[in-house]
């Protein structure tokens, strides 16, 4: 644990760029206590994360808050993007990836499951039209790549995809070393549990206390945390029902709420 001297960390670190549900918190037009809270941990951009290990930097999801998230985290170089699924709150910042490829002058690998690669290519076709370089670096230069079950090597790290169920759809979680990022899930298939053994840090969807058809509730997330047995668990994709300070005190041992800007170190 800890950031070490001069911010240098041994092992990998994961930064929560956003810990909020699809609306973000505060929600437009809502006057509830959490949406009006002065605690910065109650202000949640859409769910996303950045993982750093050695010289490698990975981005998990590219939602509509991507630009603001990159500025806040001083993020100007990434080696690859891993997309969990194609819901708007995880994808619709895709155009802002041009900020990175404008600087790097290189194609940026974007990994996603097969159906999601097809979806992105179809819905953001202006990015992928072959031979159309009229816009130069004014559009993101992306190299879409399919993840299946196999681990993906990127720089200093290996990224293991972890298939998840997200309502009737599918989402992809990812494991790097002893950390797993499992946002947007309502069920973990039995075949994915062997990929989640011996975790130090589990980051998992925990939307709110009461049930939801496509996300784990807190009680469900607690049960998954117990089953997986990670050293520490962080709940993310939080709604405006969750007041950080009051809720954090109520959680079981070794389970915490994520908040924007939180950095978690992992050996
Ligand atoms: Zn989401
Ligand atoms: Zn509210
Ligand atoms: Zn989703």
Question: What report would you give on this structure?
Answer:
The protein is α/β, with parallel strands linked by helices and 267 residues long. The chain has a single domain, classed as Ribonuclease Z/Hydroxyacylglutathione hydrolase-like (Metallo-beta-lactamase, Chain A). Helices cover 18% and strands 27% of the residues. The chain has helices spanning 66-72, 88-91, 98-104, 114-123, 125-128, 218-228, 244-248, and strands at 12-18, 48-53, 56-60, 80-82, 108-112, 142-146, 152-154, 157-166, 169-176, 179-182, 201-205, 232-236, 255-257, 263-266. Strands 6-5-4-3-2-1-14 form a seven-stranded mixed sheet. The chain has a seven-stranded mixed sheet with strand order 7-8-9-10-11-12-13. A hairpin with a 2-residue loop joins strand 9 and strand 10. The longest helix has 11 residues, at 218-228. The relative contact order is 0.18. Bound molecules: zinc ion (3 copies). One zinc ion (ZN) binds at residues 26-27, 30, 32, 34-35, 240.
